[in-house]
Amino acid sequence: MPPEMTERLQVEYAALTDVGRKRAHNEDSFKIAPDEGLYLVADGMGGHNAGEVASAMAVDVVSQFFADARNEPTVSWPFKQARGERYDADTLGIAVQYANLRIYESSRESAERRGMGTTFVGALVRHGAAWVAHVGDSRGYLVRSAGAIEPLTTDHSLLEEYRRTRPDLTDEQLKKFPYKNVITRALGMKPDVAVEMHRHELHDGDVLLLCCDGLTGMLTDRRIAQIVQEHASLTDACSALVGEANRNGGLDNITVVLIRALAA
């Protein structure tokens, strides 16, 4: 995609989603709203195609919330809205909470949608930095221009809780953990949700990567960074990441969004 100006930061971006090799349909959704500086990924769950409904609702509601907030500052009701420097970041957090409430209410209105939910990771890129919000095990990374990869999110999962309580465990022992696919937080599980969010400075050449676990379950962090570094084109990098995830098994839907910071 062509470069977009986001205040003092110029960015370029690309995205790709794929059903993978084992699933019958794609329950992932992504959305890019460059005018708002928004980049969103959601990984749905639930029977009767409800997962794809939940993930689509997540990205649509969050992006629409930003559009509405621009025209009507009181749209954040019933959630408390901060002012000053954290206004933009709080708007992202409130938008995700509102999406959670909408998904939860929708799941209770239909038997086929009962229990639907979605993980979520989103970035708001403004003022030379990215606010990254997440719920569940969809992830954000920064691939620095020098090649290092920095995880920006920590999974809300039983595996991650187990890892924190047992720091002495080896990678091989962690692989044998029987509940590694169980998440502890997602949009739509309850009427309220805790959204984890942090600010990260962006520098010329850095690549912000947002993805679902269909990518990270098939590739190591180190390999992800290598592939991003090997491709000057973000579109080619997305294709290479998805392609290698599929060659490694493609056990789940795969979605990746890449945003590169450029000197304005």
Domain unit count: 1
In helices, the fraction of residues equals 25-40%
User: Could you give the order of strands across the largest sheet?
Assistant: 1-2-11-10-7-8
> Any idea of the CATH class?
Alpha Beta
The name of the CATH topology is: Phosphatase 2c, domain 1
Number of strands: 11
Number of discrete helical segments? 7
Structural class: alpha+beta
How would you name the CATH homologous superfamily?
PPM-type phosphatase domain
Task: List the uncertain runs.
Answer: none
Largest sheet: 6 strands, antiparallel
Radius of gyration: 18 Å
List the helices and strands and how they pair.
Elements lengths: L3 E3 L2 E10 L9 E6 L4 E8 L4 H22 L15 H23 L7 E10 L2 E7 L3 E5 L5 E3 L6 H8 L5 H5 L20 E6 L5 E5 L1 H4 L4 H10 L3 H14 L6 E9 L2
Antiparallel strand pairs: 1-2, 2-11, 3-4, 4-5, 5-6, 6-9, 7-8, 7-10, 10-11
